[in-house]
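job 3f2a | input accepted
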Amino acid sequence: MQHNLTVYNTLTRTKEKFEPIHPAMVGMYVCGPTVYSDVHLGNCRTFDSFDLIYRYLLHLGYKVRYVRNITDAGHLEGDNDEGDDKFAKKARLEQLEPMEIVQKYTLGFHDVLRMFNTLPPSIEPTATGHISEQIEMIKQIIANGYAYEVNGTVYFDVDKYTKEHNYTILTNRNLEDLLNNTRELGGQDEKYGRLDFALWIKAKPEHIMRWSSPWSVGFPGWHIECSAMSRKYLGDQFDIHGGGMDLAATHHTNEIAQSEACNSVQPAKYWMHTNMLTVNGTRMSKSAGNGFLPHELFTGDHPLLNKGYSPMAVRFFMLQAHYRSTLDFSNEALEAAEKGYKRLMAAIGLLNKIVPAAKSDIDIDLKVLRARCYAAMDDDFNSPVLIAELFELVRLINSVYDGKQQLDQGALESVRELIQHFVFDVMGLSDDQLGSDQESVERLMEIIINIRNEAKKNKDFTVSDRIRQELAEIGIQLKDSRDGTLWNKI
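job 3f2a | predicted structure (490 res):
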């Protein structure tokens, strides 16, 4: 089957046909977390979205090198190279070594992504593990005339760069507006221009994390790490660079400038950004008191939540919105997504209980439906449309199970293949409704059904009806048929 995969490129602000630079290997770099605190839902949405993209590229047969970094050094309080180092600040508060902070929150980050069933990246480099690469890149930028050193700190010369390149190519922002919205230079400011940013920062005496360099004992700026690590593992130019849309204006803009100043080429062919999260129509933020940590969403331990939701229900909820669309959290939306997820998994659970007929008699052309599923994903990874198509399968499965339509063996295998490919392989969903040990659940239900059958045989219909009723209350439906009693999740 021919695929015409298109992706929305933030750089050009258009949908473009996806054509890898090197067909043998797709290079994808996604900005990972800064591990000085718990991963927030905005991060989770970004990583779930790029997990979908990664999974679909693998499904199409591409060999993908997916690099997602860990920021564990050089991150100050703001984007203006000011304030305390966040790792050192957290280490002082918790009376730990900075790398203990890094280890704690890196493990927590991995635990959360495992709960969301995301695939691990091919490579997960850390900023502290690539100091030498960052220093070498800074040396080259200085040699090319785009950076300068003042008192041990190295700054990128934005004014020099803008004379030869479009500094705001990613956001299309007006350079004059950027200058007007940037603070004035103070008497002690070392920068030549207000937009200049640090590539290397001389460490103050109290700064804990520090390394030797040709300019001073210090630490790298925030932006240089991604340029250095993407270059090392993916080359001077690669296919996809991704992250949240909040990174475009500063971090990704500066990445492009550094990389082009060093390598004389744009670092990525396609720039892709996930949109922001809102809560009841208001932007999610800690200051507004409406931000959720993943574990709060799973347990329901938050004043804005009526209950907790399973990781797979939350993943399904996120996939119901296109990655470039705003995603609004509300109890109503989460509960609706949970019902949809359970309905999907319940239908899948019925597949093993369907006995194939001699001949199919269905109202869906499965080949056409398959083509529509691929068309949805080929259109910039449109997961909401894919989900809508898959619910046509849900309707079909329920109809066949109820005896209203029939599937022969070949058609039944086609349905199973569609479910495997798109629900499990591409969307990365799994059935977490009754726990991970499905074999034990099956055995338990067999025991319960046998007890109920024995009660019916003894004409103890009070016990029989009570078993049916109490199972229904926890979302399990019993159905008596000629082949015995079947069960499914509702």
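job 3f2a | The mean pLDDT is 91.
job 3f2a | closed
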